[in-house]
Amino acid sequence: MAKEKLKARIMDQRAIRRVINRLATEILEKNRDVENLALIGIRTRGVYLARRLQEAIKKLEGIEVPMGILDITLYRDDIPKKGITPEVKGTEIPFPVDGKDIILVDDVLFTGRTVRAAMDSIIDLGRPRTIQLAVLVDRGHRELPIQANYVGKVLPTSRRERVRVRFKEHDGVDEVVITEPEE
User: b or e along 90-100 (b: 16 or more beta carbons within 10 Å of the residue's beta carbon)?
Assistant: First the structure.
């Protein structure tokens, strides 16, 4: 991976916690039938965000919404271009998706290609009643007509910049930063 330099720190642990609580509240306001609700986190950091949303919903409603993990590796459309051998980590969805209101969760919404791949993967598992999208950061630059239903922060960026979401469980720290390649 190319060296990157820090350009800006956008969110710290406290800000991320506040955003997650707000997202959980918005999800509950739109989905009154919580018995039909399920969260699916896209590997890798979408999983950590989904777990935190699950915890926030439990605190707010006293109900544990089912949660699954989605690996979209085999649904990606850029693997042949990159000439890499994909590492499949597996999908773990311990509930039927048929008829569910699925909240698809990812850390950053960028081109929309990851979300398209995730929706294809979910549809292969069954027919949910709805698929809604929750993201911590929407950075723009869409290549597909995909929009999040729940957005923690809209963060306009240049294509050169990178938005890095880090969670304690994976990275040792909770933060959102913007980086760019070093010259």
Answer: ebebeeebeeb
Residue 55 CA to residue 14 CA, distance in Å, equals: 16
| Separation CA 163–CA 146 (nearest Å) | 18
Q: Does domain 4-181 have CATH number 3.40.50.1370?
A: no
Element (H, E) at 113: helix 113-125
Helix axis angle, 13-30 to 45-61, nearest 10°: 60
The rounded distance, in Å, linking the Cα atoms of 161 and 152 is: 19
Pairwise CA distance, residues 4 & 92, whole Å = 33
pLDDT tens series, the chain, 183 aa? 579 999 999 999 999 999 999 999 999 999 999 999 999 999 999 999 999 999 999 999 999 999 999 999 887 776 655 566 667 788 999 999 999 999 999 999 999 999 999 999 999 999 999 999 999 999 999 999 999 999 999 999 999 999 999 999 999 999 999 999 987
Query: What pTM value is reported for the model?
Result: 0.94
